Amino acid sequence: MLEKDFDILWIIICSGLVFFMQAGFLCLESGLTRTKNSINVAIKNITDFGIATILFYTVGYGLMYGNSIEGWYGADHFLPEFSLSNPKLPVFFLFQLMFCGTAATIVSGAVAERMKFGAYILITAMISSIIYPFFGHWVWGRSLADLSIKTGWLAKLGFVDFAGSTVVHSVGGWVGLSAMMIIGNRMGKFDTDGKVNQITGNNLPIAMLGTLILWFGWIGFNGGSTLAFSKSIPGILANTMLAASGGMAAALIYGWLRLSYAEATLPLNGALAGLVSITASCHAVRSEEALFIGFVSGILMFETRKLLERFQLDDAVGAIPVHLTGGIWGTLAVGLFANLETLHSNLTRWGQIQVQALGIIACGLIAFSLSYLLLSLINRFYPLRVSESAEKQGLNFTEHRATTELYDLFSEMEYQKQTGDLSKNVSIEPFTEVGQIAERYNLVLEKIRTNIKEKEQLTHELELNLGVIQNDLNTAKKIQASILNQEDRLIGDLEITIRYLPLSEVGGDFFDIAELKPGLQRIFIADATGHGVQAALITMAIKTIYESLKRGHYSVHELLKYLNSEYYHSFKNLNQFFTCTIIDIDSNRNLIRYASAGHPPQFLIRDQVITRLEKTGRIIGVKPSTEYTSHEFEFLPGNAICLFTDGLTEQWNADQLEFGEMKLEEYFQQKEVISFREDIDKILELQKNFLEGMPLQDDITVIGVSRKRLGA
């Protein structure tokens, strides 16, 4: 090994190819993550190799290739001094360094978009200085004096991993899995019901370019592991290409059948899984076996991805299905398919399978267990995950203060959202896709500003018009108040109390109290349909007609008949109606006579007994000719009448319960002595409490008429 100049030249070339794989990982991972995190991912892929180089040189190389302590770790060759005249050891170090850097960078993709940059550097340091060198010594430990002499305990047992399916890829996969479990999933990846939300990368073509770079770099990865420019290299490379193609085809076909469409990352990760799986046995299997190994790896990659989703583990780029699962399968495939004579392990087929399984378990124990323990401990004192706000904002800016055109655009849009200030356009970067978006957004802003200006103008005009309307309403209110005499009064032995509560400035209730002759009073109460200005105008029509009829020699039912006829012929086109009650109180004869046109029952109260004065005909304005009847009742001193519109009883609270006539009746039944000045206000207070803050829904008019007791 490394005995000839061509050997050294070949390993230098392969080292360059493996180093170029860092560019592949950079493109792959930054393309599969979102724009707001792509710079962070790229920086990690550059930084981790530099960190790995320093730590592998100072610590890792000695632990991996120093003089072995019982096959467990190397004890010297820390900070090695390389001779310019003897290229054998420098080129060996160079090639092994590339593998160490690859193992470290695998973790980057698994924990992308939510791990602190400082935390990732700690993981890189842990892999480069501890985990990778220790396990690497078990499998690849050699005497630097004679590279053909194996010193690691697993290697001595016959464990074979030609180019690092387990030593490189499974190590990176196990550490990535432990880190994923500790820091948790990306925000929004899984719903509370377990549904998986796919997070699409920002640049899949770049990710696919990264895959091709890795595929190309694998020529050095596997071809250089011969550590010599030998005749076996073409066969190794052929097997590498076949396995990669098998993995790509299997992932695409199998995933297509499972998903019913060709998902974009299937050929990408399928090819990488095939490359990882053949890495352990590419020197010792036949071509058809290499193709089969790759084919199986593509299927296993897909099923591992589904398994992670089932357990709600978020692998941002598919590192675990590709590197961990691919590495495990590839290592087992050595025992299943490899030519035992080529392996030189002196084991039977079953014995080789057993030792390969032992190596897989040993890798899991040191890589997963040790990393999980150390990262959990670190996480207690130094949280590995970024804050929720930082994750939302993106790690490009929060970790590195690096911005992109898209981030800058979103920042300006977020400022407009927070402040509500849409007066300025967002900045436009010309001749870019983001610039085109910004330009379209500015056109939308311009339209919004135009609409706002138009609405402000309309609002101003509306306010002016509302001012005019309000002045008109105030005038109408004064006019209606002058027409409706709301003062309490005493006429003969009748005490009359009035409460009038319009819903707005003007209302649709009307009443009139007139003395036809001494001892004979006529009270008229009406309620037009609706409320507000329209209903108030109807009351003016009612007043006009009623004033012309009320002093005629008409009985109450005749008055209603003529009132209906006049109203119908004058206003039938309005399609507006009203209810009313007319009651004549004859104190000389101790009688009342009333007629009602569809009005709610009024209350005649005599010795705590309520007599309802029901309607005696149809509401006014429905038909031109309507007959009405009237009824007489005795009305003695001490008796009372409560007249009201339906606004007193037909009010509804938040539970859709009506105040109703029963509450009014129950109130009067409990009163031995009626005093309307107090009782009407108490009834209105009772109604207010019933409504529990709900607004009134109609005008209210209440007229209480009490006849004084003799001697009072």
TrEMBL record:
Question: What processes does the entry annotate via GO biological process terms?
Answer: ammonium homeostasis
Key words of the record: Ammonia transport, Coiled coil, Membrane, Transmembrane, Transmembrane helix, Transport
Q: What is its main location?
A: membrane
Q: Name one Pfam family in it.
A: Ammonium_transp
What subcellular locations does the record give? Cell membrane; Membrane
Q: Which residues form a coiled coil?
A: 438-465
InterPro entries reported for this sequence? Ammonium/urea_transptr (IPR029020), Ammonium_transpt (IPR001905), Ammonium_transpt_CS (IPR018047), NH4_transpt_AmtB-like_dom (IPR024041), PPM-type-like_dom_sf (IPR036457), PPM-type_phosphatase-like_dom (IPR001932)
Which residue ranges run through the membrane? 6-28, 49-69, 89-112, 119-140, 160-183, 204-221, 233-257, 320-338, 358-378
Report domain PPM-type phosphatase positions.
491-707
Q: How is it placed in the membrane, per its record?
A: Multi-pass membrane protein
Record keyword RNA-binding present: no
Molecular-function GO terms, alphabetical: ammonium channel activity
Quote the protein name from its UniProt record. Ammonium transporter
Origin species: Leptospira ryugenii
